[in-house]
Amino acid sequence: MWGLVPLYWPLLKPAGATEILAHRMVWSLVFVGAALLVLRRWAWAGELLRQPRKLGLIAVAATVITVNWGLYIWAVNSGHVVEASLGYFINPLVTIAMGVLLLKERLRPVQWAAVSTGCAAVVVLTIGYGRLPWISLCLAFSFATYGLVKKKVNLGGVESLAAETAIQFLPALAFLVWLSARGGATFTAEGPGHAALLASAGIVTALPLVCFGAAAIRVPLSTIGLLQYMTPVFQFLLGVFYFHEEMPPERWAGFALVWLALALLTGDALRTARRTSRTLTTEISAPSTTRTTGTISAARKAESVASGPGPVDARP
Predict the structure, then answer these.
(1) Would you state the pLDDT for residue 222?
(2) Out of 37-46, 225-234, 298-307, which region has the weakest mean confidence (pLDDT)?
(3) By CB distance 3.0 to 4.6 Å, which of 71, 142, 157, 262 could disulfide with 313?
């Protein structure tokens, strides 16, 4: 569903990217609020209101994802689907770089090779585009920042989206009222079908998230991480074969470098996970005098691998 989203945003024309973004914020809260009402999951809201630091982080997350959503909608409706897909291809590399720069994490040699290859890809793509691929970089950095903030908030996916859209709701609604007063809104001017499509932006935002949350408790994290690559792959294929965007040789070269970096990163993650699993199995079968210490150590390694640049709970 996330990979097919580029087919949806053009259906909302003649609405501009900002109007679509505002409707997405408003209707996402309506959809998620209804889901929470059915599930009767409201206890977290009272706890969140008593934690101003966590509320502040939620506000930062809402701001960053607003930039990400708005830029993505504009990019798709302006004919930059391929460049937008690149942003989500390089997002894991940006996440790793931010871990090194901001969290002082240490990288394995293969991870350094992957990040270096990603930087080389940006140089090649800059030559290919005749400019920095700023759409890709903004999408990657905003989403990586969003993931970093969400890691610190440590709130469930649906609950977090509800809190973020609650913060976005009033500014978005105020903008739509202002736009309507100026006569620039398309919600009521383009017929009921157009209005229904704009309102469906909430479902398009929240439904994949609900499915993701359901899968996360049933599917191994390593598998989910690999499946997440399907999103930019679908977006890339749509950009090239459906929207017929240009792909000169230098852009293919840049994308090839990005894919090489991701292959290095994924291979290293899988090898590390297998090695950690074998260590954990060995420690569990060891004599009881050493089992506790070894198991804790292996478990910490496993947690470190799992908390790497894996999937987060919001997408374009």
Answers:
(1) 65
(2) 298-307
(3) 157
Nearest to 93 by CA among 144, 128, 146, 151: 144
Over residues 153-205, the pLDDT tens digits come to 877 777 888 899 999 999 999 999 999 999 999 998 999 999 999 999 999 98
Do 6 and 76 contact (CB within 8 A), yes or no? yes
Residues 312, 141: Cα–Cα separation, whole Å: 14
Structure tokens belonging to residue 106: 């240490």
Residues in Cβ contact with 50 at an 8 Å cutoff, skipping those fewer than 6 apart: none
Say yes or no to pLDDT of 71 above 80: yes
Instruction: Considering only the C-alpha atoms of the chain, give the largest distance between any 2 of them, rounded to a whole number of Å.
Output: 76
DSSP H or E stretch at residue 281: helix 249-284
Binning the chain into helix, strand and coil, the percentages to the nearest 5 are 80, 0, 20
Report the C-alpha gap between 144 and 67 in whole angstroms.
12
Q: What is the mean pLDDT of the chain?
A: 85
pTM reported for the whole predicted model: 0.84
Q: For 48, list phi and psi in degrees, rounded to 5.
A: -65, -40
Cis previous bond, 14, omega within 30: yes
Alpha carbon distance 19, 5 (integer Å): 17
- Residue 220 has a pLDDT of 74
Q: How far apart are CA 78 and CA 64, in angstroms?
A: 21
Q: In which residue are the tokens 């499509």 written?
A: 197
Please determine, for residue 294, whether its predicted confidence score (pLDDT) is greater than 70: no
Start-to-end Cα distance in the chain: 10
> Burial of 154 by CB count in 10 Å (0-12 exposed, 13-18 middle, 19+ buried)?
exposed
The CA distances from residue 111 to 40, 233, 254, in Å, are: 43, 22, 19
